[in-house]
Design goal:
A hairpin with a 5-residue loop joins strand 10 (157-163) and strand 11 (169-180). The chain folds into two domains: 2-198, outer membrane lipoprotein receptor (LolB), chain A (Clam), CATH 2.50.20.10; 203-308, MucB/RseB, C-terminal domain (Phosphorylase Kinase, domain 1, 2-Layer Sandwich). Helices cover 14% and strands 46% of the residues. The chain has helices spanning 2-31, 292-299, 305-308; strands spanning 34-42, 45-54, 60-65, 71-76, 79-84, 89-93, 116-126, 129-138, 145-151, 157-163, 169-180, 197-198, 203-205, 212-214, 222-229, 237-242, 247-254, 265-269, 272-279, 282-288, 302-304. The model is unreliable at 2-12 (pLDDT under 50). It contains three helices and 21 strands. With 311 residues, it is mostly beta strands.
């Protein structure tokens, strides 16, 4: 009995330590000044990028590609602008919650502990800094997990990977050079090329109840909102579901019934999956950073709200 209780106490202490490190990470990635270069790997492709981040209020950051066609992303004043060589800039408003450092899980919701186990895994070195490794692993097969390398002194995430149920890395980023505490110059936080500005097609929140719902959501996922493109036919609906960490978008749009239904299709790129399903006169597409089984379960159980009891 004593051995069992001691084992339970050690597991609880490890979980508390992991939660503390993850809370430090959530704060550090927003508030610290830092700049450095990192690699981003997905589907066997490796890209090099440089990030400039000014913490505090207002928080500002700029991400620049170092390989392939030159492009960059700037986040400032709660908006994102994308620039690519020879192309106009795209302005995306209301992006306060978006982070340019990829694969950093937002674990600020206490309820996530019911869906993910958070444990310490050990120590390592990344970009010359000592780090603590924390695992954020799902308690079931409906979502992916994370492995995060957190810098000892500041709590900044220096490496992060999305892992599947077998522990295989699906995609990851890792700093290779980093200067923590170095505030970027003003010239580092503005676009390096002059370009026009265009705004992407906006979506509007649906009034009243959604026309569609998911009858068989994976455990832990809840409906967030329903919207549609402002310039698109009113039959098109975009819904968002989340478990607090993973997100799935569901698009329902009419299809040409003169054409035979297409077989279900799955495409993946790293942790991102796209599952398409034809249901009578409708084309249903589920997109999200979850396993294929979750996307299929969601897409194949989309029903008209009247038959589903609403969302």
């Amino acid at each position: 009995m004593f051995v069992l209780m001691a084992g339970c106490s050690m597991a609880a202490a490890a979980a508390d330590d992991a939660s503390t490190w993850l809370a430090r990470m959530t704060s550090a990635v927003r508030t610290l000044d830092y700049q450095g270069s990192f690699i981003y790997e997905r589907n066997g492709q490796v890209d090099a990028l440089r990030l400039f981040h000014a913490g505090g209020t207002p928080e500002r950051e700029r991400l620049v590609t170092m390989t392939g066609p030159r492009s960059e992303v700037l986040r400032a004043s709660d908006s994102l602008t994308y620039t690519q060589a020879g192309q106009p800039t795209m302005l995306v408003p209301n992006a306060a919650s978006v982070r340019l450092l990829p694969l950093v899980p937002d674990l600020s919701r206490p309820s996530l502990a019911n869906l993910y186990a958070m444990t310490m895994r050990g120590e390592d070195r990344v970009a010359g800094y000592r780090t603590q490794i924390v695992d954020v692993l799902p308690r079931d097969g409906y979502r992916y997990g994370y492995r995060v390398w957190i810098e000892d002194s500041t709590g900044l995430p220096l490496r992060s990977a999305v892992v599947d149920g077998a522990g295989r890395l699906l995609e990851q980023f890792m700093f290779v050079a980093l200067d923590i505490g170095a505030k970027p110059k003003e010239s580092d936080l503005v676009h390096g090329a002059d370009a026009g500005v265009m705004t992407p097609q906006a979506e509007t929140t649906l009034e009243g109840k959604p026309h569609w719902g998911v009858a068989d959501l994976p455990p832990g996922f809840v409906f967030i909102l329903a919207q549609r493109p402002m310039q698109a036919p009113t039959q098109i609906e975009h819904q968002i579901y989340t478990d607090g960490l993973a997100c799935v978008s569901v698009y329902v749009e009419p299809r040409d019934t003169a054409v035979p239904s297409a077989p279900d299709a799955l495409a993946t790129r790293g942790a991102l999956g796209v599952y398409s399903h034809d249901a009578d006169a409708w084309r249903i597409t589920a997109i999200g950073n979850v396993p294929a089984t979750s996307l299929e379960r969601i897409a194949r159980s989309v029903r008209p709200a009247a038959k589903n009891g609403g969302s």
